[in-house]
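CHAIN AND CONFORMATION:

***
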Amino acid sequence: MTRLCTCRTALAASEHICPRCRAATAGRLRRMPVLYRLLQPELQPAAGAPSYGRVGLVEAPMPVSAHVLTLRGPGGIVHVLEDWWSAMQASRGGSAPLITGTYDERVTRAAKQLTFHLDYVAEWEEGPQLARELRRLDETAMDIVCPHDTRERGTLLGPCPAEQVDGTVCGATLRHYRSSMRQVTCPWCSSVYPMHSWARLKAWIDHDREEHAPEDQEAA
């Protein structure tokens, strides 16, 4: 009976991952350290400007993004990669990996080790599960770093001027997308700016930019 890869491609006798899925897995492993670094700025919005009497939000946003914190935390990307690295080593009768360094360094090292041993992974019975888990991890991180609506590009407006309950201004980047013609929604604090408020929104954004422009720029 012909064995099939998870993508439904016929497998050779010794394979558990087909060449196409192996290449995709290699690409995801190469991208993983980059995604890990790109997730860091997503932990919180840009620093906001001081308040000057705007309507405040009822509730403050979370201090960090929970999804990003999970991916960058102890049980996230670093754990998945090191767990598979350890499992691969154990299946070959090798010694357990030596885990040292910062999370950035650990993610890079584990991804490189798995990439280096992809010949073995492709013939390892646990290889398909590893490939599926890496795919889910990659897709989750990509949806945060480059969500579908930002792939539409959108029109850059400036920092969100909504005042938070602690008196600071949100400051997250606002964009207008064709898919939401009549309103702009802040991706961080969820403030909604309907079309009739856009003139006032622009005035608030311009005020923040002028108030916090570098001194040398003002002098010029």
In short: The first strand starts at residue 155 and ends at 159. Strands lie at 155-159, 173-176, 183-185, 192-194. Residues 149-219 form one domain. The two ends are 76 Å apart (CA to CA).
